[in-house]
Every structure is written in structure tokens, then in C-alpha cells.
Amino acid sequence: MQFVAAEHQHRRLNPLTGQWVLVCPHRMLRPWSGQQEKAQENDLPDFDPTNPLCPGVERPNGIITPKYRSTYVFDNDFPALVEQVPTPPSSDDPLFQVAPARGTCRVMCFHPKSNLTLPTMSAKEIQVVIDEWIQQFNELSAKYAWVQIFENKGSAMGCSNPHPHCQIWACSFLPTEPQLKQERLRAYYGTHERPMLADYVDRELQKKERIVIENPDWLVVVPYWAAWPFETLLISRNNNKRINDLTLRQRENLAVTIKELTTKYDNLFQCSFPYSMGWHGAPTGPEHAHASSAHWTLHAMYYPPLLRSATVRKFMVGFELLAMVQRDLTPEQAAQRLREINGKCHYLHKDKLSGE
Ligand code: H2U
User: Fold this and answer.
1) pLDDT in tens, 306-319
2) How many angstroms is it from 160 CA to the middle of ligand 1?
3) 156-171 average pLDDT score
4) What is the pLDDT averaged over residues 240-261?
5) 159 pocket-lining for ligand 1 (C-beta < 6 Å)
6) Ligand 1: which atom is nearest the Cα of residue 61?
7) Which residues in 208-240 are b (16+ Cβ under 10 Å) and which e?
8) Using a 6 Å cutoff on CB, does residue 76 contact ligand 1?
């Protein structure tokens, strides 16, 4: 019998992290009688006087969120990382290793209106968000080794507030995932003298099996090694190392790409598609200022949990938690569905061309 990736179980390597993913396409046939997610509500008001992220509303700590008209960034009132904290005593014991952790956490509102999301905002409004990401990155990267910009969208991904927003955590150390990538990308560059993701972009453009969106500045694919059902990787095609390298044209194209990708996501199951997304690029701060970043390529990851419908999600539990990550639908099947679904017109905007 001949091997067919869409039918036969196999393992794929994620070269960015060195972790393997088990692909079991035949499992899509199994029945599901487990938990059903509550689909995200679409009928939110544009202003909620009890939501602390809305303009003019008092937050639990007594600070009044200003009446902002565009984006708005503030220090997280409940930060995971702060700057001033005692240093833990060093330890030589291999079983009880400890290291200092300092940083700062911010919240960034994308828009004053609560009932918008990136796919229902205009490309121009998304570009304002991108410009603010860069502004924040410029400021925080001068001091911190890692600036993690990320968006949790939807309660299925742990988002605690429906107002359109993201978070920025800047830290004095390289967190685990970026540290793994730093090592793997550097090793690949050492052997091939090319950034791994630049080579990957070229290969995906040749193969044309996993492409979702393609334009001169950006490539969106369901990566060969995707763990989440409709996971995507948004990769710079211009050898950008960090988000603050982007030119005006690249930012304009990025806004259009984000709008198209997130519209495709929403249209897939006709719901506000939950995900966690975030940016990765070369490390920063004084420690990395003079180190080579030649091995890095700016990219964003989208990790959406939904598998079959607006209410049936993938759980990373059991074998995934205890042994290795496993997926049902192949990355090629997921890419085909995302490629074929309309990304120009949001299902809520039906007849008009998506809010532009
Ligand atoms: P999510 O991205 O998970 O929804 O988190 C929203 C953040 O907003 C969360 O980190 C912060 C929370 O601490 N927040 C404030 O800083 N002040 C508030 O008044 C509400 C929420």
C-alpha cells in the first residue's frame, strides 16, 4: 500500500522548535459528544459602561480610561511582570534552579468601539494598530530582551474582555519558545547560510500545498508542522528581522493581510473565530543589540482552537499533554479550506465589501 498523507498517520517535525507533531487524518471521522463551546456573541453594544476597557469608564483601581478615539495603551493593572522586585538567591543545585524575572505588561485597546474586531475593522484602522505595535516595540525593545505582542481573542482562548485589545509583555529574559527558536534558527543559519524561514517561504511558494494568502510582502501558510487545526504562520518575505523594520508599504500590506486572514477565519464557521496570536522576531535589549540577527525572520503565529464548527474545539489534553501534540485534519486540508473561503467580505457585512 502506498503512503497518502491525507489518509495515513505520520509524524512531522517543527524545525522552529524541534518538536514533532503526530498527524492522524482518519480521526476526523470520529463522533464528538464532548464539550461544546459557546459561540461568541455578535450583538455586543459599541459602548459598555461597565467595561473598564471602554473610553471614559472607571477601572477597578479607580483610574478612568480616557476618552480615546483610536488605539489606547496602558500599564496592565494586574501585571504578571514588574520591574522592581527582589532578586532570588542563586542556586548551584541542579534540581532547584532559579533565575530572576523582571518586566512590564501593557494592555492595548485596538479601537474605542467594543463591538469591533480586527476583521470587522477597516484596513486603515488595522494599520493604526500595527503602527502602535511598532511604537510600543520601539520603546520597550530598548530595554528588554523580549517584547511579546500577543492577542487572545475569544473566551475559548482565555480572553477575559470582549473589547478589541491585545497585550504586550516585555521581559528581561528570553522566554522558552523564543529561546528554542533562537537556537534552532542559529543552527540552521550556521549550516545553510540562509535564514530558515526565508528558505521555508521559497519552498512553500514552490509546493503551493499550504498557502492561504500570498502577496509581495507576506506569505500566510498553514505550516507543514501545524499543531492546531487551522493554525497559520504569517511570514515576512522581505528579510525583516523585527516588527519595527517594516516600511510603510509593508505595513499597509500587513493590515490588508491581517484583515483578509481574520475574515477568512470568521467566515469559516460564521463566528468570531477565537485564537491566540503573537509576533516573533530577533531578540532585543542591550544584551542582544550587537548580536547578529541574520538567522531571524519576522513572523506571527495564529493558534485557533476550533476544529469542526463554531462550537467544537480541539483540546490539547491526554496524549497531547502527556506524549506529543496530535492533529486530525492535515495541514494541507486546513490550508485548502482557508484558501477557498472568502477573505474579502465578512459574513456580517454580507453584501457590502467588508467594512472598507
Ligand atoms: P485578556 O487579553 O486575557 O483579555 O486580558 C485583558 C487584560 O486586561 C488582563 O491582563 C487587564 C487584565 O489584567 N485589565 C486591566 O489591566 N485593567 C482592567 O481594569 C481590566 C483588565
Assistant:
1) 999 999 999 999 99
2) 7
3) 95
4) 98
5) yes
6) 19
7) eebbbbbeebbbbbbbbbbbbbbbbbbbbbbeb
8) yes
C-alpha span between 355 and 123 (Å, rounded): 9
Average pLDDT over residues 184-213: 98
Nearest atom within ligand 1 for CA of residue 60: 19
Q: Within the chain, where are the H helices? A: 123-141, 176-192, 196-207, 248-269, 285-288, 319-322, 331-340
Helix or strand run (H / E) with residue 236: strand 232-236
Q: Is 112 in the pocket of ligand 1 (CB under 6 A)?
A: no
Q: Which atom of ligand 1 is nearest to the CA of 166?
A: 2
Please, are residues 214 and 205 in contact by the beta-carbon 8 Å criterion? yes
- Tell me the pLDDT band of 27, cut-offs 50, 70 and 90: confident
Q: Which residues contact 67 (CB under 8 A, 6 or more apart)?
A: 55, 56, 112
- Residues found in the chain: 356
Q: CA nearest 13: which of 188, 146, 175?
A: 188
CATH code for the structural domain at 10-83+102-340: 3.30.428.10
Residue 218: pLDDT band (50, 70, 90) is very high
- Is 50 a pocket residue for ligand 1 (Cβ < 6 Å)? no
Q: What spacing in Å lies between the alpha carbon of 76 and ligand 1's midpoint?
A: 6
In angstroms, rounded to a whole number, what is the distance separating the alpha carbons of residues 307 and 352?
28
Q: What single DSSP character describes residue 265?
A: H
- From 111, 163, 165, 299, the catalytic residue: 165
Closest among 153, 61, 151 to 107, alpha carbons compared: 151
